[in-house]
Design goal:
Number of strands: 19
Structural class: mainly beta
Distance between the termini: 53 Å
Number of helices: 1
Helix content: under 10%
Shape: globular
Order of helices and strands: HEEEEEEEEEEEEEEEEEEE
Largest sheet: 6 strands, antiparallel, barrel
Strand content: over 45%
């Protein structure tokens, strides 16, 4: 088994995609300042990079410059996908940012959506899922209440063909295209652009009701 494990090729890290680093926590450390912590999902973050964290407290994003990056208590010069890092950003205060915000480069900021279209599978809903339902969506490190504003169509999982347009309800096992409106600005990306940032779970009262991925979105202007 060990020999076999050694033969596995390590999957390519998505370093060529835009930088996306969802924040897990934000600390204030004496002598250093504000230290956000999180895992790089895609792209590369280097010391000296001009970065933006969105949506941020004001919903407009906050801009700063990466001063230091630390992993396992060691200083590093760059962080790549899969790295869990703490980093210090010049120009960003502790109150400006929070868990669920996402860091990217200024020239390619994380996408903040006011609405998005998703393909979902209903996993464990106690009754049926209907338009107007507002559970909590878990997207990367964000947890945001979102409302199902339209059930666009139910599809056949095997063929992708439409079974029914505008269904009245969805039940366990159903696969559907739906439109979602977050209660507050949320960073999510299209599956076709950055798949690592497109997936989500839908939870309600301790159950995972559904899971899905974002296939289209309306950008916050």
């Amino acid at each position: 088994l060990v020999e076999q494990l050694d033969l596995f090729k390590e999957p390519e890290k998505p370093v060529n995609l835009p930088l996306r680093l969802p924040l897990q926590d934000v600390y204030n450390i004496t002598g250093i300042g504000v230290v956000p912590v999180g895992r790089v999902e895609t792209g590369v973050m280097k010391i000296g990079d001009k970065v933006i964290i969105t949506p941020g407290r004001e919903g407009k994003g906050v801009i700063g410059e990466v001063k230091t990056i630390e992993m396992h208590h060691e200083q590093i010069t760059e962080a790549i996908p899969g790295d869990n890092v703490g980093f210090n950003v010049r120009g960003i205060g502790k109150k400006d940012i929070a868990r669920g915000d996402v860091l990217g480069h200024v020239n390619n900021p994380p996408t903040v959506a006011t609405e998005f279209t998703a393909q979902i599978v209903v996993i464990n809903h106690p009754t049926v899922l209907t338009k107007g339902y507002t559970p909590v969506f878990h997207v990367h490190t964000a947890q945001v209440a979102c409302q199902f504003i339209e059930l666009v169509k139910q599809i056949n999982p095997a063929t992708g063909e439409t079974i029914k347009d505008n269904p009245d309800m969805l039940k366990n096992g159903d696969i559907a295209i739906v439109k979602i409106k977050p209660a507050k600005p949320l960073v999510i990306e299209k599956q076709s652009d950055i798949p690592h940032m497109a997936r989500f779970a839908v939870r309600d009262a301790g159950n995972t009701v559904a899971a899905g991925m974002c296939i289209d979105l309306v950008k916050k202007t």
